[in-house]
Amino acid sequence: MGQVDFSELGKRISGEPIESKQLQLLVNGMAEAFGLEVEDVTVLMETNGVLMFRHPKVLSRSTVPITLKSVAGQTYKNNKVYVYNNLNEIQHVELFEQFVQKEGGALPVQRMISCPIPGKNGPKGVLQVCRKGRTRDNAAPFTRADTDTIISLAKIAGLYL
Fold first, then answer.
1. Is residue 56 reached through a cis peptide bond, with omega within 30 degrees of 0 on the bond before it?
2. Among residues 152, 36, 151, which one has the least CA distance to residue 82?
3. pLDDT in tens, 125-142
4. Which terminus of the chain faces fewer neighbouring Cβ atoms within 10 Å, N or C?
5. Half-sphere exposure in the Cβ direction for 115 (13 Å, CA)
6. Contact between residue 145 and residue 1 where contact means Cβ atoms under 8 Å apart
7. Cα separation of 101 and 151, whole Å?
8. Summary mean pLDDT of the chain
9. pTM for the full model?
10. Could you please report the per-residue DSSP string of 11-76?
11. What count of other Cβ atoms lies within 10 Å of the Cβ of residue 134?
12. Does residue 98 carry a pLDDT above 70?
């Protein structure tokens, strides 16, 4: 299993001069690649020593410290992809459950992939995708192919964001 080819998405993003529209193209591509709602996709970028949410927009005023106490901070600090198919057993900040409300109420995040966005001198930020459900069995596990997919998407994000 190799990396997924997202060259067409990269071309669309590179051809878009407006940064917010580039971000939206990336978010839509991530959601489509994983079969998720756009609310289940996260883009965080490093700014002044913290990770700032670029998406979802409802969290745009929120920051995540770059420490090992958060999944995003750990991903950024260690510059490593993390796959959590048991997120309910891992200590994490429950921002999605608290702030990203959906019709019928928010479901807890059960599974997550967190991937650094590559930059010239280390990571520029973090991409995350999550699967929600009432229980872990209600959310499909992430696979090696999913890991390859998010790595490909992170490379595109690193080039254009």
1. yes
2. 151
3. 999 999 988 888 888 999
4. N
5. 22
6. yes
7. 28
8. 87
9. 0.88
10. HHHHT---HHHHHHHHHHHHHHHHT--GGGEEEEEEETTEEEEEESGGGTT-EEESSTTSHHHHHH
11. 10
12. no
